[in-house]
Amino acid sequence: MVTWPPPLADLKADMKVPGTGDDVVLQANLDAAVTFVQRVRSDVDYRPNPLPDAKIPDADLVLGTLRLAGRWFTRRRSPEALVDMGEMGSARVPSFDPDIERLLCIGRFRGPVFA
Asked: What is the spatial distance between Cα 85 and Cα 91, in angstroms, rounded to a whole number?
């Protein structure tokens, strides 16, 4: 069974972040990612006791939320979308990640929507 919203400990484990030095910033990114996912995936019932036939958060949605929060944490250090990699030079951080979009079923991976 998955936990919604995902706890900070899960984000730190996914990112392999030791200690507590970045906890405040990580929690802020996680809170923002949870809010974003709840807004764009309004078809999911996030309440603690959802209705019997409701779609509930699954492992993909939780992992996608954690990865999105991790991405935002990494991007905060790269305002020009570049990350310094020491002797290896710098690398570009794209503004979107198709794997995260696939996990969250957003963007081009969102199914048809009927109004």
From this structure: 7
| Amino acid at position 39, single letter | R
Q: CA 90, CA 50: separation in Å to the nearest integer?
A: 46
List Cβ neighbours of 28 (8 Å cut-off, separation of 6 or more).
none
User: Are the beta carbons of 85 and 91 closer than 8 angstroms?
Assistant: yes
100, amino acid identity: I
pTM assigned to the model? 0.86
What average pLDDT score do residues 19-30 get?
Answer: 94
Span 100-115, pLDDT tens digits: 999 999 988 887 777 6
As a whole number of angstroms, the distance between CA 90 and CA 33 comes to 26
Sign of CA dihedral 101, 61, 63, 69: positive
pLDDT tens-digit profile of 87-102?
888 777 777 889 999 9
Cβ atoms within 10 Å of 106's Cβ, excluding its own: 17
Dig out the tokens for 106 from the structure: 């957003």
